[in-house]
Amino acid sequence: MSIGNNGVEDDGILSSLRYLFADIIGDDDDTPPRVPENLPEGTEAIVRAGIDRLIEYQGRSYAQLYVDRLSRFIGKPGVDAVLFGEIARLMALRMSYEDPIRIAQLKLIERKRSSDRRKFRIDELIGCLPAVVAEPVLDVLDWLNWARAPVSIKYSARNRWGIRRLKIEAGLKRWRLFSIRYGRERVWVERWLHMIDRSLIRQPAAALSLVQTADMIQGYGSPYRHALTDWHAIIDGLVKPTFDGKLPLTDLASAIAEARAAIQPDLRQAALKRRIAEIRAEAHSKAEQTNTAA
Question: Which among 63, 149, 245, 290 could bridge 54 via Cys, Cβ 3.0 to 4.6 Å?
């Protein structure tokens, strides 16, 4: 497979675009994706749950994208049942990321006459719209310094009007694949999968730890954005340099665990950046000592 300039596999991008096009033309038939053959023992239930979740979330063609992404790990050297099961589970969760549309869907699924409020940022709400509409609006909001302003949205199923409104909001899922947020999520998933591929080649023992970094990123709003920034800091500071041969880390799994333990709810990422710098310095120091001794 060829790799694009951003380190994302071109085949993954083409798969995403193919299923986006299927959604545009309404080519999303009633046939659910088939569970791939030769799955590791004990993982079929996880894969079926992922398919069902993504059909509910976006549609059958989107669930097929999940199957296609997952299939590249079937039978791959170093991928046992535990690792495959975690990839299947976490990819389904990340592909069904929480946005205002998803929260409306879940409220309808609950079938409870209840209501609650969720806090978003304005740019998060606008980011759910098709990019052609959202981008100029976000430009204006940035200029006004309003993009990060908080907005409280009520989700109510207590009366007919509230349920109708939830259905309208949930129905916007048709536009989700055109949105800025979806584009960013697609790139993130493909980068995560690419790093897993590289780990299986360069440091197989770290593959499971790398897969499980996906659970860092959850929810919505500022916590989601902070977690995403932390994830990229770990990947760019430790993982990618190790795979590129620029950082002599012999135990990447432990380094990832140490970095994750240093994460704090700090916008500046002071503790995380400091720990990453310390891990890097320690790795270079050990490599120099080994070279000197040799």
Answer: 63
The three-class DSSP label of residue 155 is strand
Q: Does the CA dihedral 74-75-76-80 come out positive or negative?
A: positive
Residues whose CB is less than 8 angstroms from the CB of residue 130 and which lie 6 or more positions away in sequence, other chains included: 175, 178, 179
Q: What is the pTM assigned to this prediction?
A: 0.86
- Quote the tokens at residue 65: 């994208």
Q: Which two tokens stand for residue 113?
A: 């006459």
249 closest CA partner among 277, 275, 280: 280
59 DSSP β-pair partners: none
Q: How far is it, in rounded angstroms, from Cα 89 to Cα 73?
A: 13
Q: Decide if pLDDT at 251 tops 90.
A: yes
Task: Assess contact for 179 and 129: CB atoms under 8 A.
Answer: yes
- Strand-pairing partners, residue 118, are 153
Structure tokens at 140: 């204006």
